[in-house]
Amino acid sequence: MFRFITVLRWTCLWLTILFFCTSTVVDAAPKNRLTDIRYWSAPTFTRIVFDVAHDTPYESSKLERPERITLTLKGFDGYLPKSMLEVRDGIVKNVRALQDREGTVRVVIELEKPANHNIFLLGPIDGKSPRLVVDVTRDDLEQAARQQREETRRQKKKGEFIVVVDPGHGGEDPGAVSKNGTQEKDLVLAIGKKLVAQLEQQPGIKAYLTRRGDYFIPLQKRIDIAKEYGADAFVSIHVNAGFSQKVSGSSVYCLSFKGASNNAARLAESRENSSDKIGGVPLVQKEPGVNAILFDMVQTHTLNTSMRFAELLLGELSKINTLHSHAPQQANFAVLRSLDIPSVLIETDFITNPVRERALASHQFQQELAKNITSAVRQFAGVAGPGNEQSEHVARNQVEQKPVQQDIPAVQTVREQRTSLGSAARTPDPSVKKTPLQKKNPQELHAVPGYRIVKKSETQYALVPVAEDKTKTFAPRQSVSPSLPTAVAKKPATTAVQQVRVHTVQKGETFFSIARRYDLPAAELKKINGWTEIPQLKIGEKIKVPALITHADADSDTSS
Questions:
Q1: What b-and-e string marks burial along 194-211, b requiring 16 or more CB atoms within 10 Å of the CB?
Q2: What's the number of domains the chain is made of?
Q3: Is the pLDDT of residue 496 over 60?
Q4: Is the pLDDT of residue 451 over 60?
Q5: Same domain, 163 and 132
Q6: Between the CA of residue 443 and those of 172, 228, 429, 460, 560, what are the distances in Å?
Q7: DSSP codes joined into one string, 295-364
Q8: Which strands, in side-by-side order, build the sheet including 161-167?
Q9: Which string of b and e fits 510-530 if b means at least 16 CB within 10 Å?
Q10: 235-249, 372-386, 509-523 — which is least confidently predicted?
């Protein structure tokens, strides 16, 4: 019995000691600290940021007469970075803060006029400490800005080409930062302003910025702004960052449905898409309610147009700077996910290269970038104007196109032709006078020597053995479509039918992605198919590719 009581006493003693030790540890836990109070002013909202040591609970309320928002933060250590923050941007007058002896911080945000607000916590990211964010928005200002953009779209003149220039990052999101402290958001805003100024000097072209100051815009909002303007092209301006200080050069990116085209593109995609995470905005995916098939078809067409735009940009950038990537690259950039606006992202150069950093910060190089990007836009506007209706002014600046081969008589140049049951196709007959095919319909041609109606299962190559001259075949890039007669012409000496196979264009594929898949230079792919320019490929379109390939996965996507 005595032994039991002794054990019980020792147990109680140790429990008491443990209790006091635990209490001491809890009491000694570090308190929170408010390290800074900052703000960013945008035309329609003001963002106020409270930098804290770690996440903090808060209470908020909205009061009237005067209009103000109050915050109560508990558990702080007594340090207060500032007691008054003057704003006076038309939305917020000022921010006042005070802290009592118990570690409670009370904040009052005084407003200019009635406004909505949204409060949320952001965890640590990209070297930033946790933040408590208060967004104060004036709905009347937002509505007025949106109506102004939509009015611009409604008043758009026939043939006018609208470009929306998007300086990346901004506000809370600095983008890439050099060792010297140069921030990407400042460089791209300067370049963007110079670009819009030069574009505005071009007849038939109108240009607008997504942001004109140092404030953050969510990635989806940037796309929305372009749509509200009725943009014909969207150009997002950025600077690149690398692990080596020696890497340099410009790159142009388009959207990818299947992920980044290489490791550099993958790194750029991760860096640029983190903008919304830093700003605390969820990423928006496909527009709800849009028919999936229509969505894919329209966006694939938009992607192909974007790739042609990117090629023009690379050609102009190469005149003033080295190219980091000589062909358009692809990655799943959130800011390029527009359904129907050709969109590109330009990485002007590497801020991590000290030499290129100085160039990017110089007025002269920024002007050169703006000038050459403007030149590419002028060329693109000439060949991809709204509804293919070119204005008189823009058409003068149209990119020079190589003429279609003229030594092949009466051969159609319609890119979308297909061989189908019931269409008329021409077989070679030297004695027959060459008549322009578009003036005859299939029924008339049925009785004309040298023409016949395509039968079931026949293709352009199946027609060749029927022709009198079996050394002739269809011209490069030639195919047959319903109710559209097609001539058979002399085969180019450099192309043999047996040396190529047919590749069916799949969703998300472009001219450049197909060239990379078959390890084929872009010029060679154009030569095989007889193209004089980079084509806009459509889902289901059949193109020629080399028959001798080593890619095991190509067989599943090709047919003869």
A1: bbbebbeebebbbbbbbb
A2: 3
A3: no
A4: no
A5: no
A6: 68, 48, 19, 19, 29
A7: HHHHHHHHHHHHHHHHHHHHHHHTTTS-BS-SS-EEE--GGG--SSS-EEEEEEEETTSHHHHHHHHSHH
A8: 205-209, 161-167, 233-240, 343-350, 251-255, 329-331
A9: bbbbbbbbbebebeebbbbbb
A10: 509-523
H or E stretch covering 222: helix 219-229
Question: Is the domain of 349 the same as that of 436?
Answer: no
- What pLDDT is recorded for position 1? 53
Same domain, 325 and 469: no
Banded model confidence at residue 291, pLDDT cuts 50, 70, 90: low
Would residue 323 count as lying in a domain?
Answer: yes
Helix H segments across 230-262? none
Same domain, 193 and 242: yes
CATH code for the domain in which residue 95 is found: 2.60.40.3500
Instruction: Between 143 and 442, name the one with better pLDDT.
Output: 143
- Which residue is it, tokens 């003033």? 320
Residue 266 has pLDDT above 60, yes or no: no
Q: Are residues 349 and 467 in the same domain?
A: no
Q: At 372, is the pLDDT very low, low, confident or very high (cuts 50, 70, 90)? A: very high
Give me the domain span that covers residue 85: 34-137
Residue 203's pLDDT is: 92
